[in-house]
Design a protein that fits this description.
465 residues; alpha/beta; Leucine Aminopeptidase, subunit E, domain 1; Aminopeptidase; nine-stranded mixed β-sheet; six-stranded mixed β-sheet; 15 helices; 20 strands; 32% helix; manganese ion binding
Length: 465
């Protein structure tokens, strides 16, 4: 994670100017340049296209030019390429037409563009920090908090399973709790068997080195509205006895991405001092293979009392979430939000950039989608069709964890989770990828947060800024 503060209040200090232009307005803007400056930009093939960066000599100094879609409507990412490629220094957006121009939403991407993951490999040619100034000081704290949360997700997901097992997730929760004077309780190992039998069954094969656990963080006033956040913490997924292929297993260090989102969101909620009684649960396991691994055809009990036939041991995330959702429902929350790297079906349908969103209430979906659109983190709603519930029927148990056809995998997984959410509780489920397969400005290849900012800004609107 990038540790340096990369945005700062503009108090008139020396800084290099950045001009933002788009392709349509470039020719008009370029008329104000000296001939030598226009030649310099022509030599760099700069024409104002998105994410282009130009360097313009100006006497003994220089200024930068960035191509954006619309200089009047900036996005989170429109200045990210500048933050990636400009040299170390301090920068401010140049005034235009006599008026002040501020980076606004671009403050977020300016920071995430400078993210590095160096736990195992240091950059041989590091670039010093690029600091962006803004006169809107009220924007700084929020932009910095959101960027830290985003980069927390990246750090956690990028870390391999040997160093990011259930115990490491517990340590992360403890560190966040200490920061905000929250309370953490943890149920570990065989102590899970009675109260959280599905968490125990999934995680018991890895108990020697990575014992399963349910992590529970509580914060806020007892009389405040209860908000429950849950994150799937499968720290590595071999598939269990229904073992994955080598290619399918390669990225399974990221299967705790839901837990990373839950931890980051909890930190944001507490830092923003939202007036809620926060309960966060992370069921943390490794889905391993051993003589005591749960088997296809087994019937598991659950905290809710439902019995679950195992149609596929590789559909383990919904099992551990089932016990956590049941426990969360017992607190009578006003809202439950869960994050999970749950199905490949969601990725086939939506690709990596849009997390699948399923909700019981239309208003909750609308609010999350609106918040996502406003903050460049748009989820895409998928249905929870009643007609597909029968696909989870079992001949010998209350339900099966894996349906027997290839249709609607993400929605059917959501329907499984729905069985464990208390009646009448407002609930939102993010089936998020937590991984970026291809880099984009401000968004490096590797661990990624999807749905995090959408959820946080919806909660700010719902529970008060």
């Amino acid at each position: 994670m990038t540790k340096t503060d990369l945005i700062a209040p503009d108090r008139g200090q020396t800084a290099t100017a950045i001009h933002l232009v788009n392709k349509d307005g470039y020719e008009g803007w370029a008329k104000s340049l000296k001939p030598s400056q226009r030649v310099a930009l022509d030599a760099q093939k700069f024409d104002g296209s998105g994410y282009q960066v130009g360097i313009v000599p100006d006497g003994d100094s220089w200024f930068a030019v960035g191509g954006v879609a619309d200089p009047d409507e900036l996005s989170s990412w429109c200045m990210a390429k500048l933050a990636e490629v400009l040299p170390e220094g301090t920068y401010r957006r140049a005034a235009s037409n006599g008026g002040d121009r501020e980076p606004g939403p671009a403050l977020f991407g300016w920071q995430t563009a400078q993210y590095t993951f160096e736990r195992y490999k240091k950059d041989d040619n590091p670039t010093g920090p690029r600091i962006l100034l803004t006169k809107n000081a009220k924007d700084i704290d929020l932009a910095m908090a959101e960027a830290r949360a985003d980069m927390r997700v990246r750090d956690l997901v990028n870390t391999p399973a040997e160093d990011m097992g259930p115990a490491a997730l517990e340590e992360e929760a403890e560190a966040i709790a200490k920061k905000h004077s929250a309370k953490v309780t943890v149920t570990r190992g065989d102590a899970l068997e009675q109260d959280y039998p599905m968490v125990h069954a999934v995680g018991r094969a890895a108990a020697r080195h990575h014992a399963p656990r349910l992590i529970h963080l509580v914060w806020g006033k007892e009389d405040a509205p209860v908000l429950a956040i849950i994150g799937k913490g499968v720290c590595f997924d071999s598939g269990g006895l229904d073992v994955k292929s080598a290619a399918g297993m390669k990225l399974m260090k990221k299967d705790m991405g839901g837990a990373a989102h839950a931890l980051a969101l909890a930190d944001l909620i507490m830092e923003a001092a939202l007036p809620v009684r926060l309960h966060m649960w992370v069921p943390a396991v490794e889905n391993a293979i051993a003589s005591n691994a749960f088997r296809p055809g087994d019937v598991l009990s659950s905290r809710k009392g439902l019995t679950v036939e195992i149609g596929n041991t590789d559909a383990e995330g919904r099992l551990i979430l089932g016990d956590a959702l049941t426990r969360a429902s017992e607190e009578k929350p006003e809202l439950i939000i869960d994050f999970a790297t749950l199905t490949g079906a969601a990725r086939v349908a939506l690709g990596p950039d849009h997390p699948a969103l399923m909700t019981r209430q239309d208003a909750t979906a609308d609010a999350l989608i609106a918040a996502g659109k406003a903050h460049d983190d748009e989820p895409w709603r998928l249905p929870l069709p009643d007609g597909y519930r029968e696909w989870l029927n079992s001949d010998i148990a209350d339900l099966n964890n894996a349906h027997g056809n290839a249709y609607a995998g993400a929605s059917v997984a959501g329907l499984f989770l729905d069985r464990f959410v208390g009646d009448g509780i407002d609930w939102a489920h993010f089936d998020t990828f937590a991984w970026r397969p291809f880099p984009k400005p401000g968004r490096s290849k590797g661990g990624a947060a999807y749905g995090l900012r959408a959820a946080f800004h919806m909660l700010r609107e719902r529970f008060g800024k």
